[in-house]
């Protein structure tokens, strides 16, 4: 899971990095996902510097250029292959209770409020490499 | 349902990050660009 891998990677920096995880899910579903999916994959203290934020009307998503992907892009070969692998491992396929076409993304905001990284995935499984995020966090602006 | 009409272009590196005050699940409000340290912003897709 990207969020868990990201937090493990950030730990290697030995510094506190604020993380904002934004979802358009409603509060009960968001809480259920945190308790039932995220915290099963990682200890809660891994997320001590993380704020779980809500954007149910997609105001912030849209301000960051995050719209909806096309159906063909979302359910293209990569995603179908991912589901085939889940099924082959005997894992339950996720139930889709939300807009599955909404895209996500990863951004790094510098202390000066300027973006150091802006990454919007090509499809629903595409996230930036963790090393790319870490490099953006380490980057220092000129004095 | 979103439409392309109200979606901004993806902001570029070096540009000021769009700043918002967002509610958290703990009923606090957090400003995205107010951190003294670099921060990571992850927009989730559907939660599964």
Written overview of the protein:
- The complex is a heterodimer of chains A (143) and B (48).
- By secondary structure, chain A is α+β, with helices and mostly antiparallel strands.
- Chain A contains 6 helices and 4 strands; from the N terminus they run αβαβαααββα.
- In chain A, helix 2 (27-41) links the parallel strand 1 (19-23) and strand 2 (50-54).
- The longest helix of chain A has 15 residues, at 27-41.
- Chain A is globular, with a radius of gyration of 16 Å.
- The mean pLDDT of chain A is 86.
- Chain B has 48 residues and is mostly beta strands.
- Chain B contains no helices and 3 strands.
- Chain B has a two-stranded antiparallel ribbon with strand order 1-2.
- Chain B is extended and about 30 Å long.
- Chain B starts with 20 loop residues before the first strand and ends in a 5-residue tail after the last strand.
- At the A-B interface, helix 1, strand 1, helix 2, strand 2 and helix 3 of A face strand 3 of B.
